[in-house]
Amino acid sequence: MTPFGREIRRLRAERAISQKDMAKAIGLSPAYLSALEHGHRGQPSWELLQRIIGFFNIIWDDAEELQRLAALSHPRVTIDTAGLSAEATALANRLSGCIGKLSDEDIRRLQETLDGAQKKKSPKTAS
């Protein structure tokens, strides 16, 4: 399941909407909507994302969050390490080989480490 699929499923459950009813309302087959929720389909197109946002009648921050989740939800990621260090290539390959064996807690800690590293690299704002 992808972050986007998990959120779609949560929104449907919160509103007691079946996959079949939602799929019909936004012009998809129930099978396609199921595949999207389970991460068997790639990121939704901008048009489909807008239909989903409209279907749930979500606005502003919630709509931006759904767009952010869609951007993070491609189920088949390719990492191009051409031009990067040998360490970067080794990390990408190692993560590819072991990500399926990591616990949610391990993944959360790795994400926190990456977030911290990105903050160190971000330009500091002047006070």
How would you name the CATH homologous superfamily of the largest domain?
lambda repressor-like DNA-binding domains
Overall strand count: 0
SS field, number of helical segments: 7
CATH C-level class of the largest domain: Mainly Alpha
- Percent range of helical residues: 55-70%
Separation, N- and C-terminal Cα atoms: 42 Å
Largest sheet: none
Q: Look at the structure and give the mean pLDDT.
A: 90
CATH architecture of the largest domain: Orthogonal Bundle
Structural class of the helices, strands and pairings? mainly alpha
Q: Strand percentage, roughly?
A: under 5%
CATH topology (fold) name of the largest domain: 434 Repressor (Amino-terminal Domain)
The whole-angstrom Rg is 18 Å
Total separate domains: 2
Topology order in helix (H) and strand (E) letters: HHHHHHH
Shape: elongated
Regions with pLDDT < 50 over 5+ consecutive residues?
none
Please render the helix and strand layout as text:
Blueprint: H1 3-14, H2 19-26, H3 30-38, H4 46-56, H5 60-71, H6 86-98, H7 104-121
Descriptive report:
The relative contact order is 0.10. The model has no long low-confidence stretch (mean pLDDT 90). Helices cover 65% and strands 0% of the residues. It has 2 domains: 3-71, 434 Repressor (Amino-terminal Domain) (Orthogonal Bundle); 86-121, no CATH class. It is elongated, with a radius of gyration of 18 Å. The chain has 127 residues and is mainly α. The chain is built from 7 helices and no strands.
List keywords for this structure.
2 domains; 127 residues; 434 Repressor (Amino-terminal Domain); elongated; single chain; mainly alpha
